[in-house]
Write a structure and sequence with these properties.
Elements: E1 4-9, E2 14-15, H1 16-23, H2 29-37, E3 41-43, E4 46-47, E5 53-54, E6 59-64, E7 81-84, E8 88-93, H3 110-118, E9 142-148, H4 151-162, E10 167-175, E11 182-186, E12 189-191, E13 199-201, E14 210-218, E15 222-229, H5 236-243, E16 268-276, E17 283-287, H6 292-304
Parallel strand pairs: 9-16
Antiparallel strand pairs: 1-6, 2-5, 3-4, 3-6, 7-8, 8-9, 10-15, 10-16, 11-14, 12-13, 14-15, 16-17
Length: 309
């Protein structure tokens, strides 16, 4: 079995190791270091060091680890499949489902369900524990994500994540009344130095993180918003809304300790996704309605609080 060769087209100027890390966040720093030390990263066909400065348009190539036999149990777990063809699936993920196996979540994940549904028809680019997984959403966030069935589709979708042409739109209810109708949060994000399970704003060492926010409805005490991702950092919307002092309703990690509604998780829903289909070259887009607990809470808020302009 040969290694997976991954190609990225640089969309900005940066150190090569930084650019790869920002666009392939699942790759560990130790793996990237070994990759560069072993001469395994090429820019425009030439091996480069980690400090090499890539320019917009440069072709970055490197090998991912050899795909091993997947030691993950296929499980017959219901999936809400919005779309499926020979190259990809679009899944509407339920609240509480983890995307891929990890410590503490060895089964019951989306990957376990995909193994049952797709069998061997999943890409191997993201390694043994994450077949088909192009991008993730948090365990208690609901909504759409795209899964690749083969490496060609995976490469195309990864390129679109890299050049930011794969669009992702989320809907959320946040605490408080947002004054502006629309604005952008541009605040770098890194692992929280005090709690490694959390992320935080980090102006010095954080990765570029940009979220475009639009107000849809105001209720005085709460606001319904739409968030469009320009970047896709871990917990990005949750950290950015906390940063502007309007955390998401139901967020047990970044939200308020006491809330008036009893919720199983944050009211954050990946409601829309769009990308260029890897095989047809056509722009496709998909939408998923708000989950039941989100809709019910929204109706309670509408009934209880007078809308304010």
């Amino acid at each position: 079995m040969t290694n997976n060769i991954l190609k990225l087209t640089a969309c900005s100027n940066a150190r090569c190791d930084v650019y790869i890390a920002e666009n392939m966040p699942d790759l560990s720093r130790s793996f990237l270091k070994k990759l560069f030390d072993g001469g395994g990263v090429f820019v425009n066909g030439k091996a480069v060091r980690a400090s090499f400065k890539v320019k917009e348009g440069d072709c970055i190539e490197f090998s991912l680890p050899e795909v091993k036999k997947l030691d993950v149990e296929a499980q017959d777990i219901p999936l809400d499949i919005v779309y499926e063809d020979d190259d990809l699936l679009v899944i509407n993920k339920a609240r509480g489902m983890v995307v891929h196996p990890a410590a503490g979540n060895e089964d019951g994940t989306l990957v376990n369900a995909l193994m049952h549904h797709c069998g061997d028809n999943l890409s191997g680019i993201n390694g043994v524990m994450r077949p088909g997984i192009v991008h993730r959403i948090d365990k208690d966030t609901t909504g759409l994500l795209v899964v690749a069935k083969n490496d060609t589709a995976h490469q195309s979708l990864t390129d679109q994540l890299s050049d930011r042409s794969l669009s992702r739109t989320y809907f959320a209810i946040v605490h408080g009344n947002l004054k502006e109708d629309g604005f952008t949060v541009d605040a770098p994000i890194a692992r929280d130095t005090n709690d490694r399970k959390k992320m935080a704003i980090a102006r010095k060492d954080g990765r570029d993180a940009v979220t475009h926010i639009t107000v849809l409805e105001r209720f005085g005490k709460y606001t319904l918003i739409r968030c469009k991702l320009q970047t896709g950092r871990t917990h990005q919307i949750r950290v950015h809304t906390k940063h502007i002092l309007h955390p998401i309703l139901g967020d047990k990690t970044y939200g308020l300790k006491k809330e008036e509604f009893s919720l199983a998780g944050q009211l954050l829903h990946a409601g829309e996704i769009g990308f260029i289909h890897p095989r047809t070259g056509e722009k496709v887009s998909f939408a998923a309605p708000l989950p039941e607990d989100f809709s019910e809470t929204l109706e309670k808020i509408r009934a209880k609080y007078t809308e304010r302009g």
